[in-house]
């Protein structure tokens, strides 16, 4: 049985994951991601080229279904564009948590990029809502009959809440597409698990697959040491992250540490939507690790004791604090506002995620420590603060090899 694959994104790069596989005569789109590094047409997979290659009149008749593995934008960011602007209205599948949490990610990103010049074919908030309404939610290991010949099934992938690996079978051909997955547990998620399956094709994410890292424990210690040192010196710690995933993992780590060390310094979340997202995390406890499921009867670990909501005016408050903001790569939004304010003081610390795309302030900071950043010809930021990157990379990346 011939299997054909059309790789529309993430073939030779990180970003805009989108693979269309034809198995047993059925065409399935796995993931529908965006590339965060581009603000033009390259932002989305080249759907028009695909349609031309298939010779189909429209996407709905060309595809049997779309399946999305998890809520990260490089896996779901193009979905509202694909349904509301390209006009696909066939079935879309993702797990319950992905369906619940994806709108936060999409809207957060949409708001940040709304006023970026050159941003083409951006979708609206209403588009996101209309798109998500069409999604059919999946449970783990539930076998779903898409049509009389095609079945799909989702397996636990770790990585972020609700992340899944997808099994698809049509006729006598079967395959698995993974998206990101984790083979080591983290603070709130278990490890990827899948049945023993007979497959004709396996497509697997491989970002960081060959990276050898320090142990998770050592990284956590290093991160906490840097944060503690900064706040004891009266400094402010800025942690730009995505609204979901890493933010919750780091919050659990800091909340625990604050409790143990009896620290009184406030930890803030800048975005109201993250507080709302934390509420979803509390509700979706069944998708976390066994340890959390066992202990949450005593105390829900997403009820953070030391984390409070941030008001915009707090940015000028004196004294130490820790602040989580979006977006992760300081490409705009409140991350950039706080960075402008705090970067000039050597007391402060900025932590960066492991990967920042070109064109963002995060990327400039990672490519050699600049003393000044020119945002445009009138806006310059003196950078005297400490900058730490890679410190928080240990969380939720699909790396399977760790240094002992
Ligand atoms: Zn991911």
Automatic annotation (TrEMBL):
InterPro entries: Beta_Casp, INTS11-like_MBL-fold, MBL, Metallo-B-lactamas, RibonucZ/Hydroxyglut_hydro. Residues 15-227 form the Metallo-beta-lactamase domain. One of its GO terms (biological process) is snRNA processing. GO terms for molecular function: hydrolase activity; RNA endonuclease activity. It is found in: Nucleus. Residues 247-365 form the Beta-Casp domain. It holds the Pfam family Lactamase_B_6. One of its GO terms (cellular component) is nucleus. It comes from the Eukaryota. CDD domains: INTS11-like_MBL-fold. Keywords: Hydrolase, Nucleus. Belongs to the metallo-beta-lactamase superfamily. RNA-metabolizing metallo-beta-lactamase-like family. INTS11 subfamily. This is Cleavage and polyadenylation specificity factor subunit 3-II. The lineage of its organism: Eukaryota, Viridiplantae, Streptophyta, Embryophyta, Tracheophyta.
